[in-house]
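Aim 2, interim progress: modelling of the heme C-bound target.
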Amino acid sequence: MIRQLFASAAVIGALSTSAFAAGDAEKGERVFRKCQACHQVGDNAKNRVGPVLNDIIGRTAGTVEGFNYSDALKQAGEDGIVWSDEHLHEYLEDPRGYIPGNRMSFAGLRKEDERDDVIAFLEQYSDPDAVAADHADQEDSSNADE
Ligand code: HEC
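Predicted structure of the complex, ligand included:
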């Protein structure tokens, strides 16, 4: 019985991270203040302490031109990490744990809804086709989990 409870909790957990984010971009703009010390988005965005986050969805990790990434983040890109809602969730929850050795000095966003919201905010600065394809992929993979 207890086992079953754990098992269904795990399923619910998996569904809520893979079901595509119903984030609120307006709230995400406020969450993004935590990122702004290091990152810019929008028309005149420039690389600062961290790389520009325009077009993040569908971008291979570690590939903004002119930004001096850590070896760890470049390696993550070479290993095939392409930023998606799902990868962003994992990275933003625990940047150091997800890509050990990367240089983003940020503790992470513990709350899932904060991550959903900031990702929804960032999606506005990405190619809408890439965002739609990412959401479609997630629907496929959440069906596959069932
Ligand atoms: C203290 C500065 C700092 C803060 C705060 C910060 N970042 Fe970063 N971020 C970085 C740095 C530096 C890198 C590059 C890390 C590397 O090369 O290892 C990075 C990398 C990234 C990447 C990977 C980009 C790529 O091109 O592969 C994403 C996505 C990202 N940050 C999102 C965020 C978001 C969203 C927030 C806020 C919730 C945030 N960061 C907060 C400094 C920061």
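Residues 2-145 form a domain with the Cytochrome Bc1 Complex; Chain D, domain 2 fold (CATH 1.10.760.10). The chain has one domain: 2-145.
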